[in-house]
C-alpha cells in the first residue's frame, strides 16, 4: 500500500504523499470542530466546490476553490509525528493517522474533557488506493452494532439509517413509497454517527456531486467485520468531519458549513393553494379566480398559490416560459388580480425545452444545452416527450434564464418561482457541459445543477424586488440548497403510510441543514384521500413552515380544503391554528437564519440525555417549545404518547392538563384535533383568534 510521508506542512494544511502509489492525502484544520480530508492522485483537486460556503460566504456561479481557507478561523492545533503515525489535535478533535497505507482514527472530547474514540477507518482496506486502482473511489469505516446513523437529507424510512443502503442520485420519484423508495429528489451525502454508550455524536460530509452509495450495514463481508462505506463515481475523495459532541452541535455546524439558511417572506408560512388540475383545464383562469372566492367564502386565509405548469401548455404538453393565452388571455391582469387580493403567484418553471419549443432556436444559437459526447445537444426523455436540458454551467444559459423569469413572470406580477422537475436526469455517462469555459463531464456537476438553477432564479427575483426576501422553491437540490430555497418532499402518494413516513423523512432533512420545508398535504398522486386521511394530513401539516395542499389525483379530482363537507369545520379549525402559529413559526425561520437551527426537530435533538427519545416515534418537535403527536393510523381513538424528560413538564395545548416529563400517557383522540403539548413555563407568540394582533401566550 505504500507509506504516506509528510510532503508539506504550511499554515493549517498538511500534505502527505505516497510515492509508491503516486497518491496525495491532504488534511486541513479549518475550525476546532471541522477538519477536511482529501485523497487524490492530484496534488490539488482543481474541481471547485459549491457546497462548502460557510456562513455568508459568497458563492459565484463557477464555484470556489476546494483549498479556500478565507471563510475559516484556521485555529491553532498541535502536530506530532513518529515513524508510524501523525497526530493532529485541536481543542475539539484529534486524529491519529497511520502513515503506512493511510488509516485515520478520530477522537472527540467528552464532557470531562477527555478524548474518546468516535470513528475509525476500517483496518482492512478503507480507500481505493488500499484496495485496487480499478475499484471505485470509496471510504470504508468501522461500524459498531449499537451505532445510530442520522441524516442523509431526504430519505425514506425511519430516522436511524443503520442497516440500510442508500443511493445518492436525484430522480423524479413520483408516487414514491415514503418507507422504502430510494433514491428520491435530493443529494446530501452527510450523516451523523451517534454512539449511545459514550453519548457522543460526530458528522461526516462527502463534498461530491456524482452518483454514489452509502451503506450502513446492509452489507456483510466475512473478511472485514462490521463496516459502513461511501462509494462514488468521482475520481477523488473529499470529506469533512464535523464535531459534536451533541447531535445539535453537529447539525448547526454543518448548516453553517454549507451556508446560512435563507429568510423567506412572512407570507410564505401561510397556507399556499396548489393543484395541477386547475391549470390543466381549459378554463384555468376562471378556476383560479374561483379558488380565491372559495377561500373567501370559507373564511380561509391564503397568501400564495402555486401555479402548476399547465399555464405553459401547447397541445397538452409543457413549454417553460410559454403562456397559453387561451387559458390566460391576459397574464399581467391575472397576476395583478391575485397580488391585489394579497395572494402571491408562484409559477412553475422547468429546466428543459421540448423539441418544438417556441424558444428552442434562441438557446441553440448560443449553445446553451447539455451535450452528448460529440458536442451536439443531448436529447433526453422529459415528461411525456423528448427535449434538451439547459446547461447552467454556461453563463449565457444563466443570463437567458434570468431574462425569461423577468419578462415572462416578474413583469406580469408573478413574483415567485417554483423550480420543478429539476433532477436533471441525464443518464449518458459521456454527456458534456460548458463547465464555465472548462468543459467536462455532466456527471461531475449533476447534483449541483438544481442549485445553479435556483441561484439564477433567486438572483433575478432579488434584483427585481430588492426590498423583499425573495420566495424561491425547488423540488431537487444538494447540500447547501437551503441558502436559496424552501423545498418539499416531492410528489408523494396518498396513503396513511405516506403520512406516517413523510414525518420521519422530515427528520433527515432537519438534521442535514435543510430546515424550511413541508409535504404535499393530502398526497400528490394516487387515489383521492378519504375524509379522515385528508383531515389528519392537514392537522399534521399545519405544524410545518411550508403548508400547501397539492395534488394530481388519479381520478382527476382536486385536493381542496373544502373537498369533504363532513370534516370541513375540523379542516378549517386546523388551518386557522396554522395561521395563529404563524408568528412562532416565523421566529423559528429567523432562528434558523441567525443560529443555524432546524425548525422541525426529532425529539432527541432537544432531549439528547433521554434515551427513550431515540426510539422510533411518530412525534416531533416544532422548535424547542412544541411537541407534536400526529395521528397517522386510520380510525384511531386513543394515542399513547411519551413526553420527553424535562424539569418543567408539559401542558396539553387544548385541555390545559399538566403532565410530568418522562411519563407515558394515553389520551383520547377525536376528529377535532391532534394532540400537541407545550413546554410548561414557556410562551408562544401567536396571532389572536381574529388574526389581527400578535399576542404572547404563556403556558
UniProtKB/TrEMBL annotation:
CDD domains: GH31_glycosidase_Aec37, GH31_N. Residues 597-682 form the Glycosyl hydrolase family 31 C-terminal domain. Keywords: Glycosidase, Hydrolase. Residues 25-214 form the Glycoside hydrolase family 31 N-terminal domain. It comes from the Bacteria. InterPro entries: Gal_mutarotase_sf_dom, GH, Glyco_hydro_31_C, Glyco_hydro_31_N_dom, Glyco_hydro_31_TIM, Glyco_hydro_b. This is TIM-barrel domain-containing protein. Residues 261-587 form the Glycoside hydrolase family 31 TIM barrel domain.
Amino acid at each position: 500500500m505504500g507509506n504516506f510521508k509528510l510532503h508539506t506542512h504550511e499554515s493549517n494544511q498538511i500534505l502527505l504523499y505516497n510515492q509508491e502509489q503516486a497518491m496525495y492525502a491532504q488534511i486541513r484544520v479549518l475550525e476546532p470542530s471541522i477538519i477536511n480530508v482529501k485523497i487524490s492522485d492530484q496534488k490539488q483537486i482543481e474541481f471547485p466546490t459549491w457546497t462548502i460556503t460557510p456562513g455568508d460566504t459568497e458563492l459565484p456561479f463557477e464555484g470556489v476553490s476546494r483549498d479556500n481557507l478565507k471563510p475559516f478561523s484556521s485555529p491553532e492545533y498541535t502536530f506530532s509525528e513518529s515513524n508510524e503515525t501523525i497526530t493532529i489535535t485541536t481543542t475539539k478533535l484529534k486524529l491519529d493517522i497511520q502513515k503506512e497505507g493511510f488509516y485515520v482514527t478520530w477522537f472527540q472530547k467528552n464532557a470531562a474533557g477527555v478524548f474518546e474514540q468516535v470513528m475509525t477507518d476500517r483496518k482492512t482496506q478503507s480507500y481505493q488506493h488500499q484496495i485496487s486502482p480499478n475499484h471505485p473511489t470509496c471510504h470504508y469505516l468501522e461500524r459498531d452494532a449499537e451505532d445510530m446513523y442520522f441524516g442523509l437529507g431526504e430519505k425514506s424510512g425511519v430516522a436511524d439509517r443503520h442497516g440500510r443502503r442508500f443511493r445518492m442520485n436525484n430522480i423524479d420519484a413520483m408516487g414514491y413509497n415514503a418507507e422504502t423508495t430510494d433514491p428520491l429528489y435530493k443529494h446530501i451525502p452527510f450523516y451523523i454517527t451517534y454512539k449511545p454508550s459514550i453519548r457522543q455524536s460526530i458528522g461526516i460530509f462527502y463534498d461530491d456531486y456524482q452518483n454514489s452509495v452509502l451503506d450502513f450495514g446492509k452489507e456483510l463481508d466475512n473478511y472485514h467485520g462490521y463496516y459502513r462505506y461511501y462509494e462514488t463515481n468521482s475520481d477523488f475523495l473529499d470529506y469533512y468531519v464535523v464535531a459534536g459532541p451533541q447531535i445539535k452541535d453537529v447539525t448547526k455546524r454543518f448548516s453553517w458549513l454549507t451556508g446560512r439558511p435563507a429568510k423567506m417572506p412572512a407570507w410564505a408560512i401561510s397556507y399556499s393553494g396548489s393543484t395541477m388540475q386547475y391549470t390543466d383545464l381549459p378554463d384555468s383562469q376562471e378556476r383560479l379566480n374561483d379558488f380565491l372566492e372559495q377561500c373567501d367564502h370559507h373564511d380561509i386565509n391564503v397568501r400564495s398559490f402555486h401555479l402548476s405548469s399547465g399555464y405553459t401548455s401547447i397541445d397538452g404538453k409543457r413549454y417553460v416560459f410559454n403562456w397559453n393565452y387561451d387559458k390566460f388571455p391576459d397574464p399581467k391582469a391575472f397576476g395583478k388580480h391575485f397580488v391585489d387580493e394579497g395572494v402571491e403567484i408562484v409559477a412553475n418553471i422547468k429546466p428543459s425545452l421540448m423539441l418544438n419549443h417556441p424558444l428552442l432556436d434562441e438557446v441553440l444559437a448560443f449553445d446553451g444545452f447539455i451535450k452528448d459526447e460529440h458536442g451536439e445537444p443531448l436529447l433526453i426523455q422529459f415528461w411525456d416527450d423528448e427535449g434538451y436540458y439547459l446547461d447552467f454551467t454556461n453563463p449565457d444559459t444563466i443570463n437567458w434564464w434570468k431574462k425569461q423569469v423577468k419578462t415572462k413572470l416578474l413583469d406580469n406580477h408573478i413574483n415567485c418561482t417554483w423550480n420543478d422537475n429539476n433532477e436533471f436526469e441525464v443518464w449518458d455517462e459521456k454527456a458534456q457541459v460548458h463547465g464555465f469555459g472548462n468543459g467536462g463531464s455532466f456527471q461531475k456537476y449533476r447534483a449541483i445543477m438544481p442549485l445553479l438553477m435556483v441561484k439564477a432564479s433567486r438572483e433575478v427575483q432579488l434584483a427585481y424586488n430588492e426590498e423583499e426576501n425573495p420566495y424561491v422553491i425547488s423540488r431537487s437540490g444538494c447540500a447547501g440548497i437551503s441558502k436559496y430555497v424552501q423545498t418539499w418532499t416531492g410528489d408523494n402518494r396518498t396513503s396513511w403510510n405516506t403520512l406516517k413516513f413523510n414525518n420521519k423523512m422530515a427528520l433527515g432533512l432537519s438534521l442535514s441543514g435543510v430546515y424550511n420545508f413541508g409535504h404535499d398535504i393530502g398526497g400528490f398522486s394516487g387515489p383521492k384521500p378519504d375524509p379522515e386521511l385528508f383531515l389528519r394530513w392537514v392537522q399534521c401539516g399545519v405544524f410545518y413552515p411550508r403548508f400547501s395542499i397539492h395534488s394530481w389525483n388519479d381520478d382527476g379530482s382536486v385536493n381542496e380544503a373544502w373537498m369533504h363537507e363532513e370534516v370541513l369545520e375540523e379542516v378549517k379549525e386546523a388551518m386557522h391554528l396554522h395561521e395563529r402559529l404563524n408568528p412562532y413559526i416565523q421566529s423559528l425561520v429567523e432562528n434558523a437564519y441567525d443560529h443555524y437551527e432546524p425548525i422541525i426537530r426529532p425529539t432527541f435533538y432537544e432531549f439528547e440525555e433521554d434515551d427513550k427519545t431515540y426510539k422510533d416515534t411518530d412525534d416531533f418537535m416544532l422548535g424547542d417549545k412544541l411537541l407534536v403527536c400526529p395521528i397517522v393510523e386510520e380510525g384511531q381513538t386513543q394515542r399513547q404518547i411519551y413526553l420527553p424528560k424535562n424539569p418543567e413538564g408539559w401542558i396539553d395545548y387544548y385541555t390545559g392538563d399538566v403532565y410530568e416529563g418522562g411519563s407515558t400517557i394515553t389520551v383520547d383522540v377525536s376528529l377535532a384535533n391532534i394532540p400537541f403539548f407545550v413546554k410548561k413555563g414557556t410562551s408562544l407568540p401567536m396571532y389572536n383568534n381574529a388574526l389581527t394582533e400578535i399576542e404572547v401566550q404563556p403556558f
